[in-house]
User: What shape does this take?
Amino acid sequence: MKKLCLLGLFVSLASHSVLADNLPAPMENKDAFISNLMKQMTLEEKIGQLRLISIGPEMPREMIRKEIAAGNIGGTFNSITRDENRPMQDAAMRSRLKIPMFFAYDVIHGHRTIFPIPLALASSWDMDAIYHSGRIAAKEAAADSIDITFAPMVDISRDPRWGRTSEGFGEDTYLVSRIAGVMVKAFQGTGANAADSIMASVKHFALYGAVEGGRDYNTVDMSPLKMHQDYLPPYRAAIDAGAGGVMVALNSINGVPATANTWLMNDLLRKEWGFKGLAVSDHGAIFELIKHGVAKDGREAAKLAIKAGIDMSMNDSLYGKELPGLLKAGEIEQSDIDNAVREVLAAKYDMGLFKDPYLRIGKAEDDPADVYADSRMHRADARDVARRSLVLLENRNQTLPLKKTAKIALVGPLAKAPIDMMGSWAAAGRPALSVTLFDGMTRALGGESKLIYARGANITGDKKVLDYLNFLNFDAPEVVDDPRPAQVLIDEAVKAAKSADVVVAAVGESRGMSHESSSRTELNIPASQRELIKALKATGKPLVLVLMNGRPLSLLEEKQQADAILETWFSGTEGGNAIADVLFGDYNPSGKLPITFPRSVGQIPTYYNHLSIGRPFTPGKPGNYTSQYFDDTTGPLYPFGYGLSYTEFSLSDMALSSTTLNKTGKLDASVTLENTGKRDGETVVQLYIQDVTGSIIRPVKELKNFRKVMLKAGEKKVIHFTITEDDLKFFNAQLKYAAEPGKFNVQIGLDSQDVKQQSFELL
Ligand code: NOJ
Assistant: This one.
């Protein structure tokens, strides 16, 4: 009892940051502090810490606060303002041991200011811009009392049928790993304990992007080699960058759900990688162990999860209900619970919450009068990052940039689509604050007079699809449907097109089409919109497609029909302004694809860094008995790393400083990049390496470095890359990470296919 009072006193002193010198120093010594605290906790209080509860509109707040005050909840998610979270923290401060709560949220690509979706951020290949977007997201979220985010999502996605492709950074292990580290550093800033930082919990551990057939929540079956070589490095990069948390994936891996997977969670994550942070289950995942068919009931599910090292149970019912009985029956050990509790408390410690439970909640008198006040938004930053993420796929006859003096027909269901502009997982973003393409173009033109708008088509003409998409949003219809017959909409758009000099069609997916659980069997633009494009093409007017979508689309027909195609993904709060900047040439596009665009869904997978095969298809020499689909052209529609500019760039041949490399040496690979066009512009110079002969089959090439370079019109610059043995290492058949002597091809290009090549030998 005495101890307890001391701790109470300590927390209350500490919470006011008045640390007296003569107090024992548990707060300074994390392990001692936590051990001391744990000694005072009852079993119920310990289990309470393992419960992460979702706060929904339907949730009785009074009841939640009661539970918190009783020590039965460790953290909540989905409550996102200081005045919502303060009473919950007050309740925690009324609990016996005053253990602070943490407040979590899915801050994925922005908090109130929404930045481009992650796939778009990756398209910028601009690590500074990506960092900046994450830092602002963290600051905004922290200012709204959020302590921890369920991000970054670094699942490698090589199957664009998977709706969550939008949420990740693409298909490439190296690029995604780089971004993983950048995002963790951005969220956590100077440390997860800083008032303007939030803790990162990398997800979805592991391999979620490889669900069979691209169908969400499906199984994953993968060789250990492929896991280590291609899919696991991004999670590792996030952890090496200091991510305080990990969210465990919903899928199974080689027959064992991640949530019950002791190899994944204990052997790999904690023992091999040395992860010391918090492991959180995904929503309801422990219960789903029953549906996976590895637990016969809730009791067994809870046992499997706690044994596997799942510290916190998201949306918990089972930990709270089953752990006491399991312990009593000797089916789990006290140490299973204690280990998990220790991680939760350690995470709270690392978030700075023991020192000050109100670190991010602040004082009531400082609460913003309007959480959406313009002064709290970061519009200029969002616009800048969004411009950097746009990818110019086609630009015949210099259709773009548009002249501001031209008469422009703006058509398409996504021209005035504020919800879609934000993309999925738009955190606390508010549609009313997002700038649509119509708004952005109108502003750029200084008024509506030169813009002729017609909707032209609905997102989909398929009632079943529409119902599905609208089922996803609880507040308002997600997809607005114009009830007029399709032909009437098209006729109106054609009329607008005929009276204009150029047509801009905003087409693609609604945001819900690229979301959790939104897997697709086709990658086409929906038929209703394809009909519109066809009709617009028939007018003979120059046609610019502004694509909005969260995954690669198959654009075979559109590539022929359109004069220019700008891939804008879902570009966030300032999307409309950013797109207008590019359309009118106020910004020269520089984005590059972080994922391959297939010609058709039947070609999947189309990732560029596939393994070498015995009978490769040779372009220009088609023939029987080579690896191809005989009914279509082989190769992607747009390769990984591809993207145009309004200027032209050329690359000289590559110079290699030597044709041999010692194990401890360095090699310099250089090219001269020249801006041969008439505008200043940026491009991404990409370095690929192929290990020609290895003890196991190696990929045809792998991205190993890149540099985003700005050149004035006519300017030249020599771009150097250093290659060391580290760049040549891979996991061999024994899963040993090492380089093997022999021949390597080095390629430098402005995309993954059009490259300059040289070779060297590793001695
Ligand atoms: C389920 C999703 O899979 C996960 O990514 C997300 O963080 C949680 N729900 C919480 O919203």
